[in-house]
Specification:
Elements (H helix, E strand, L loop, with lengths): L2 H17 L6 E3 L17 E4 L6 E4 L4 E6 L18 E6 L4 E7 L9 E8 L5 E7 L5 E8 L6 E5 L6 E2 L8 E11 L2 E9 L4 E8 L4 E7 L9 E9 L4 H18 L1
Antiparallel strand pairs: 1-2, 1-16, 3-6, 4-5, 5-16, 6-15, 7-12, 7-16, 8-9, 8-15, 9-10, 10-11, 12-13, 13-14
Helix pairs in contact: 1-2
């Protein structure tokens, strides 16, 4: 391949990489140094890479808020364990109040990338859970734990397939690993794996592109058992540059044969 084609290959590769701007790979958890004085808006909690921007947190009144704590306190030291070095992100929302915590990717997922994280819960008073949102902040996936509007249940909403109850069997140390994998420019697959005293796995598809997540807790009746804990927010690998280079090379070879 002569210089003209090498230059063209590099130019085309750069254009493809730019147009397919991927979310940065990495890990975000409760051990970040920025949390030394507590958890609040603006805190950047990436510990590997820079997959997310700073947190945006808000609460409606004094009966809702945010903290860094031990998820096992959900059940007197025996609750669901999503801790890293003994701590997790905690949210409470009681007596009609609500707390929201938003974490936005540095760039939306592209095909071949996935967002994964863990949550732990105990009581199902009120409503607590997570929205996964697109670039317009519309929910494309929701996992809700609670009694508000659904009875005491664990419900998936706003998805294309697989929505509804994931099974309402109660356990005081429930942990859920949630993963959304972008399989096309228009959607992907979601999975929820449940651990603790009850084990289960559920899956389906969603429509849209993953851009941010919003944790929430509202209208509980108080006590550690009504908190929501979350941790281990991860963006897993993007498609290989080698694959893109192969596509570019094939395109140039075909063009050369036509000249």
């Amino acid at each position: 391949m002569n210089t003209k084609y090498v230059t063209a290959l590099l130019t085309l590769t750069a254009a493809i990489l730019t147009s397919a701007s991927a979310a940065t790979l990495g890990l975000n958890n409760s051990t970040a140094g920025s949390l030394a004085d507590g958890w609040g808006s603006g805190d950047i909690t990436n510990v590997t890479g820079s997959p997310f921007g700073g947190w945006s947190v808000s609460n409606s009144d004094g009966s809702a808020g945010f903290f860094i704590g031990d998820s096992k306190s959900l059940n007197g030291g025996a609750g669901g364990d999503v801790n890293v070095s003994g701590s997790s992100f905690g949210i409470y929302g009681n007596n009609g109040d609500r707390a929201d915590a938003i974490l936005t990717l540095d760039s939306p997922l592209i095909v071949g990338q996935a967002l994964s994280f863990d949550i732990a819960v105990n009581f199902r008073d009120g409503a607590k859970g997570v929205d996964i949102r697109d670039g317009s902040d519309a929910a494309i996936f929701n996992f809700n734990v609670g009694s508000a509007g659904s009875g005491d249940d664990y419900i998936v909403n706003f998805v294309t397939t697989g929505g509804g109850s994931t099974g309402n069997d109660y356990d005081s140390n429930s942990v859920f690993n949630i993963t959304l994998a972008q399989t096309s420019a228009g959607g992907g697959n979601w999975t929820i794996a449940r651990f603790g005293g009850v084990t289960d796995s559920d899956s389906g598809t969603y429509t849209g592109v993953v851009n941010s997540l919003k944790l929430y807790n509202m209208s509980g009746t108080g006590g550690d058992e009504n908190n929501l804990y979350a941790n281990n927010f991860t963006v897993v690998p993007e498609p290989s540059t080698a694959g893109l280079l192969g596509l570019c090379a094939g395109t140039l070879i075909l063009r050369r044969r036509r000249e």
